[in-house]
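[Automated response] Your request has been received and processed.

Submitted sequence:
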Amino acid sequence: MKDISLLNELELKIRELVSSLEREREKNIDSEKSVQESQKLSLIEEKVRNLINLVDQLEQN
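Generated structure:
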């Protein structure tokens, strides 16, 4: 039972991180450096989404 609670908390924090990354990406739209940062953020976002999927799978089991 405690594991599910921890997983829910982790998922919430990951979702908050994704939101923060998306807001940061919006701030950095115009320069080449911003493009590079956006690519890094996209990679991080992809990894975070994969983590969310794993957490969801764990919750289902």
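Summary generated for your ticket: The CA atoms of residues 2 and 8 lie 10 Å apart. The longest helix spans residues 32-60.
If you did not submit this request, please reply to this message.
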